Amino acid sequence: MPEKVNVALAQISCKVGDKKHNINVMKNNIKRAKEKGANLVIFPELSLTGYLNRDLAYELAEPIPGSSIYSLEETAKKENIYIVFGMPEQSEKAHAVLYNTAVLLGPDGLIGKYRKMHLPTHSVFEEKRYFRLGYEAPVFETEIGKMGLTICYDMFFPEISRLLRLKGSQLIVCISASPAVRSRFFEVFTAARALENTVFLAYVNLVGVENGLQFWGGSRIIAPDGSILAKANYDEEDLVIGTIDYADLERAEAFVPTLRDLRPELFNSLREQAEKL
Amino acid sequence: MKLTSDVLKLDLPSVENRIKRFVKDYVEKCGADGVVLGASGGLDSSATAALASLSLGGHKVLGIAMPEEETYDVTDIQHAKLLAKKFDFNLQIVDISSTLKACFQSLPIYDVADKLSKGNVKARIRMVYLYYYANKLNRLVCGASDKSEIMVGYFTKWGDGAADISPIMDLYKTQVRQLALHIGVPAEIVAKPPSPRLWPNQLAEKELGIKYETLDLILFGLEHFMKSKEIAEQLKLPIKLVEDVKRRWLVTEHKRRLPLTTKLGYRTIGKDFRLPHKPY
């Protein structure tokens, strides 16, 4: 495994409901990222379809693997690159059961997926109306490091990032579709999740306007000490590459040893209290 | 939360950019050649016209001033002209007096003393003119309603409330004033007392019975789930005044929605038919 990995933040704008267009945009960005030396390219939440699909989600969702995965697998193989993107996933067993899913592809094809565990259903968000909750937070061992995936609102909950870190993640990827009024939340949460777990965190947000919502971009790579290694522009499409050096993990763990100082006995108490809320 | 005028302060460059981006994006996605809007010479329509021009370029903005005999005010026309010149958009002046006269004459139950029903016709005739221009010129109708007026239902249903986009509808009146000054709308327009011009000497604050500075803080509190009692105590207002504003907000929800129907089918328009705006 290389010590240093080049991560491309592909901050794109999507056409709602137009998978063909969005796949073309993704392929174009993958090619450009590869030319710039990227090992991994990350796209926003639901980048296959756009975010606000509403009832169209039922016809846009695909099983995994499915035709869009096959199409992007070809690109991953051809460019010898890792890709993370978002899509509405259709259950194989019950076709109207959908998940908001992040997919990881590699040079050998599909590696795995993560189904969003925290679905926002408040304010302008209506995800529980369409999606089923995910129940697993897998960590993927790849040639470019151990990686865990999260999606947007998951950042508000420290448990999932912690779980991924305890399972061995060196890099946590968060794909997002966050509207502008929430930028200050994500700027804080992404830094906090990286720092409290001494882990690299790559956050990629959507840009563009959907249904009057303006997505703010501001994608970033955060080092285990909380510093920002790379940052995309706000409010416009951008492709930014940052280099992560896994050797920094050990230095960060020694400097602020949050993993050493964890108090596992608190977790039972957390569960008890959360159930009684 | 402390309800003071500070809560209504805006990050003006950011808000300006977001509105400009929203207008440009939607007009482009619709394949429209620009927007038409009512150019009354008042604050809201001037701020909207200025933002649209800054967003799209003045050549894609057409302001229509629609004076009529009863409420004619030469200052309004002067202000509309001043703004069009400053923001470099086209302005047409269309007198709607004869249309209104013909409309009233053809109404079998027309009642000259019922100024509200009569006034609403004026707002709706203006809407008809705007949509004619929009259809004819492949443009969108750009509304100029603000959040204060929409929340308390101080607009004509399917009249000035009818539009394809309403760029300033998430800003309270006092916030529109801040933004208008920031983008360069002349101060004399910003300072003018708001009026829908539905009948002579009609003034919004007099009719509403409250100053916008107070109304906006009450509405801001309601928006943020504050209880009437708390709002009244903080603003040192009679609870009845706050309750009256809250009641106006709640009873006018019908003006902000599609027509109500009863559910009969599998998916019903306005209820559980949920589609994205302009998916392609």
Q: What is the end-to-end distance of chain A?
A: 44 Å
Supply the number of structural domains of chain A.
Answer: 1
* Most residues in contact, chain pair and counts: A-B, 20 and 15 residues
Q: What is the CA-based Rg of chain B, rounded?
A: 19 Å
Instruction: Give me the secondary-structure category of chain A.
Output: alpha/beta
- The fraction of residues in strands of chain B falls at 5-15%
- Biggest sheet descriptor of chain A: 6 strands, mixed
Would you tell me the structural class of the helices and strands of chain B? mainly alpha
CATH topology of chain A: Nitrilase/N-carbamoyl-D-aminoacid amidohydrolase
What characteristic shape of chain A results from the CA principal axes? globular
Number of helices of chain A: 8
Can you tell me the CATH superfamily of chain A? Answer: Carbon-nitrogen hydrolase
Backbone CA Rg of chain A: 18 Å
How many alpha or pi helices of chain B? 12
> What's the CATH architecture name of chain A?
4-Layer Sandwich
* Name of the level-1 CATH class of chain B: Alpha Beta
Specify the helix fraction band of chain A. 25-40%
